Amino acid sequence: MNFKPLVVLCVAALFTADCEQNAEVSIPMFTDGGLLRSGKALTRSQLMLFEGMFEVHSGSELLGNSVAVRTSPGTVSLLTDKNAGFSVLGAACLPDRRVVVEGYWQYPTLVEAGLIRLFVEPPELAHSLCDGAETRPNGTFSLSGNYGHDSVFPQKPLVLDWDRELKPWRGRFFTVAHHGACEITDYCGVTPNTIETIRLAERVGSNATELDVRMTKDGIPIFFHDPTLSGALVHGLFCNGAVPDLTLAELRGACQLTYGEAIPTVEEALDMMVNETELEGTYLDMKVADGVLATARLASKVVTRLKERNSNADPSDDRTFSPIIGIPTQEVLDAWHEAKTVLKSEGLELPPCLIEWDSDLVISEGCVGWGPTWTEGPQVDNVHKVQDAGAGVIYWTINQSEFMDAFLVQAHPNGIITARAALLFHHYQTLGTVPPLRKGQEATP
Amino acid sequence: MTTRAAPSAAPRRPARLPSKPRGWLCLALAVLVASFASPAVAEETTAGGVAVAAPPLPDSPASGSLAKKTPVMRQFNGRGFAFAPSRPELNAFRLGIGVQYDAIDPQVMYGFYVRVPQLALEARYGLGNGWSLKGHLNTILVINELTLGVGYTWQFGRWALEASGSAGVYYGRLGQLGFDAQFIAGEYRPELALGFAFGDLMLSVRGSLILLGPQRASVGELWGGFDNADAFAGHSEMLYIENTTASNALWYLGIGSMSTLAYYQLWLLFPDSPAFYTYPRLVAGYEF
Prior knowledge:
The structure holds 2 protein chains of 2 kinds. Chain A has 13 helices and 21 strands. Chain A is an alpha/beta fold. In chain A, helix 7 runs parallel beside helix 8, helix 8 packs across helix 9 and helix 12 (401-411) packs across helix 13. Chain A is globular and about 60 Å long. Chain B is elongated and about 60 Å long.
């Protein structure tokens, strides 16, 4: 037999394996630091005045025909249905009494991003904001300015005109970030299941997170998706093996996540979500049964602290946040039963639970939610049954807009897990129905 | 220009651009290597351990009766090859059965840990005068591709060039493990293949465009489309070696580069990324 062709085959194989390149793209910024640094940041209450649906008068090629504007601590977000795009902006009163709203925009699945600089109009509204006003005058207002691509100074016109108030969403409809703000294949610059992606998740339209819990060798619950240290998520010379075979110190010492972040513990991420965001809950997806008790203890601690905080004399520090134990399998459910027994014997609060696969179990177990996979269809009858029992329904994980719309319209769920938070928030605001109140919940204005 | 994060966001590292597939370039290099290596090989071929003069292809100016005695030439003008360009006799039939393995990009596979080879069938039916009917099926239940087409092969001495086109269906279904989902799309594959008679082996390079459309998926009773679906779903560049045996049968090996949209790789994840992902494909099997 002639072996030369096989040599050629091997050479071709080597070339093929070696022929990929990884280029990089930056999240853009103003080269001079922008106008925000020369102004006085608007207060949280003032930022709330921007929340609403806006018509896109100019710039629809970037944002589509309408945008939903919502706010979080320190930021104003423009959420669109155009390529699931979002914009994360800051707002400040400038020395000349204009109010600037500027930052960057991005399409998460594309390598496209750019800068936005808008000003509040009419000037009288800007002046009143600079004077400390926390109410919006009657009548319309606009955000008017420019956008650009990459770090090029924004020059294309962008005008957003106030249209209407947002449908109720806080405490009612949950745009749940699928292990954070973006998918692993996106270009957001953050790795799933990190502190950084949780922070970004709120800014791109989420009001809750879904995060994957695993256990280290030394019994510490961490957020990590895969059972092993796959190259798709982590890198490092000595970063290999299975997650449960390594201590937290070994994991952090050897591994960096894709964008340089550290693997977070559940405890530090819960602290961050409660104290540094306005997220309303997290869905702790228990990937391993042996992590249920330790995670339930941490969740219980959060529940207890919030109860104390919300019952003190100072209403200004009140905070609503639900650390929900997500139960995807019978094995985890068994571990949850054991954990409940232990927590009760120790006199600790029980955190809420959510069951993924069986709507009847949600009711019999007294859980707060059902988390069906969307790939079995909307299952509308089961949704109504769960909602009638006072629990909520949160589908996982819909990123496709046509299906998102159909599920919103047919099933009226209490939330959807998605990596396209901007898209979901926008579609809920345009097509969605406010879901019924859950057990023990009061309608908020 | 700069990597500092936007004012309101924590500092973030730059995001990566999609990888740029250059598989076609690599395979072109392989062909060049083969081309340079050919004189020495072309002058001799081995039959029963005895070196004999390698004849030109039958249609070449110097073709003669000796050509029909070489295994590669017999197949080229006899039953044809499943992959390499060939000019099979009228009504000649070739059936290949084997496996096809895609080492799918780990980013696309995120959360799925098992990659299983697919069963692959190839068929060629001779229409005479350089024309062939072609069929292809690969299946692993959740992914099934079936295409039927026609091709024409030109011959230039030891080289042969085939142009072909196929049309068919890409269909997938899963009704368990938390899924009640289907995917269906028309599939169209224009292809060019270059073959080279290489002693008792046939070496060929095949480039394909993968066109899909319209793409529709269902969950439960609900049908919808994919965001960022595109008619141009990718391309592939494969290098095949088909080895003659004492009978009319052959065994084959192939390796190449696939660059496809994520939903072509694994529609079941309902990916919405518009990026093309590059990954190797390996095939091996037997031709009757």
